[in-house]
Backbone:
């Protein structure tokens, strides 16, 4: 079950990181992603609207909806209760990972060092978010980690854009890239869902062109 969700999540190789401040933007944003052909959204637990946004997207769209920026186990419970189907964390938390295992919800924990990669492997997790990707070394960091960890699949996030996503996706250890560029908070705030759809469509086209 966990593997099937992860496969669906990574299939398009692009994971939009969504910040919902105004709950009314959740549905049109989700519909823009669906129109673009990207049926996935990571809704960050950074705003009070996060759980309700997950609830709306999970019940009113066909998106695979997950929770991001999960840093405490109680947020795992809130996310699952709202209908989230996966969890993403910015760093490696044993308590969050344990709670996800208890609730049988797939988790992609954040890592930024080899030590954290080993901690994740110790918990049976081998799909990891490199965060904040650009700040911790980006492509060079991933090439370095590929030496000792050739079987780990990374989802670099943090500073990934339309300009550098293809370089990341060309690496054999990169499963997908995450980021907010195609669902930029300014576009959401402006209600510019047409631009969100266009930028997302472009990102998917770029991802489809990359061979690794
Ligand atoms: C995240 O939580 O994954 C990041 O904030 C996304 O980073 P970005 O805004 O640089 O894409």
Residues:
């Amino acid at each position: 079950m966990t593997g099937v969700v992860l496969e669906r999540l990574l299939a398009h190789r692009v994971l939009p990181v969504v910040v919902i401040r105004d709950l009314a933007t959740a549905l049109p944003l989700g519909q823009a992603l669906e129109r673009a052909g990207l049926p996935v959204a990571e809704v960050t637990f950074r705003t009070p609207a996060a759980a309700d946004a997950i609830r709306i997207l999970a019940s009113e769209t066909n998106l695979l909806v997950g929770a991001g920026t999960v840093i405490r186990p109680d947020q795992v419970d809130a996310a699952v209760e709202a209908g989230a189907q996966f969890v993403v964390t910015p760093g490696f938390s044993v308590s969050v990972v344990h709670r996800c295992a208890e609730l049988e919800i797939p988790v992609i924990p954040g890592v930024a060092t080899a030590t954290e990669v080993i901690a994740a492997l110790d918990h049976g997790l081998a799909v990891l978010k490199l965060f904040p990707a650009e700040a911790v070394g980006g492509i060079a960091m991933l090439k370095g980690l590929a030496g000792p960890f050739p079987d780990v699949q990374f989802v670099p996030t943090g500073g990934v854009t339309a300009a550098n996503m293809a370089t990341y996706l060309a690496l054999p250890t990169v499963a997908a890239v995450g980021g907010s560029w195609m669902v930029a908070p300014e576009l959401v705030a402006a209600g510019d869902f047409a631009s969100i759809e266009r930028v997302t469509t472009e990102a998917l086209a770029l991802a489809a062109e990359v061979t690794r």
Observations:
- The pocket of 3-phosphoglyceric acid is lined by residues 17, 44, 68-69, 90, 131, 157-160, 178-181 (CB under 6 Å).
- The radius of gyration is 16 Å.
